[in-house]
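Lab manual, section 2.4: Encoding a predicted structure.

Procedure: take the sequence of the chain (286 residues), apply the prediction step described in section 2.3, and record the output as structure tokens. A sample record is shown.
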Amino acid sequence: MLKSIRKIITAEKRLLGSVETDQVLPTEVIGAVDPFLLLHHIKVRVPANTDEKSNGIGPHPHRGFSAVTFIYRGSIHHRDSLGNSSLVSDGGTQWIHTGEGVIHSERPGREFAKLGGIQEIIQFWVNSPAKFKKDKPYYFPLSEILTPRIEHNQISISVVAGEYMKVSGPIKTLTPQTILRITILKGATFPLQIPSNYNCLIYLLDGDLKVNNQKVLPKQMVVFERNGVITNVVAVKSTRFIVLSGIPINEPIVSYGPYVMNSEDEIERAISDYRRGKMGSLDETF
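Recorded output:
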């Protein structure tokens, strides 16, 4: 049985500080697609000889969800209050379970900042169930070479988390999810299979697809109903896209800036804990 398409959303331009992003979650049309809270697609040119210390995103806190970044071009140097310092480059993923709170920064890698070039990333946020929001945070960097890949009929599927075609992704999620990065060449077709009880969305970075015979353009997101298993995907042009899918948590969501909790009281406590240094500190070393 085919999955029904609920909506096709076009990204809205937003500013994150001085950086322009294409945002498809949340928008005026749709809020969260439980458990997925936010999705940004950023593509910027970093000039050569950029000062690493003054570029990217400086130290900031998070609590109550997972912040995930797919790096497509360029590199990100992640530092956090847990003591992690990690460089993730093209094809890699960084996954931060923020739990009870962490402070981190995301800067361009030193070599990339020196050489300059295009930095392209996708960042999305995944909500955590209430019972995990007070867990210790942890960070998982995943390089392209260590990401399991399925090559099938002009389709390349990188399995980041969950299981697809009996291949398991290395990143363990707090609730059942299947997270895929896919490249499909022009003319290729395949039946994408996601369980019927999963919320599911597809976001196109570029190219054109027909999804269940509906045309989908770059920087658009397809949101599916929770029914059916099969989605027919046909590449009108060679396309890069991602699949985010998972069982909804079905809990109250209260968010404020970098915090995602279940009540206003918990948000106020997160703000207070950060101000009192309970999320640690990050003294960046360059």
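Check your result against the sample. The mean pLDDT is 96.
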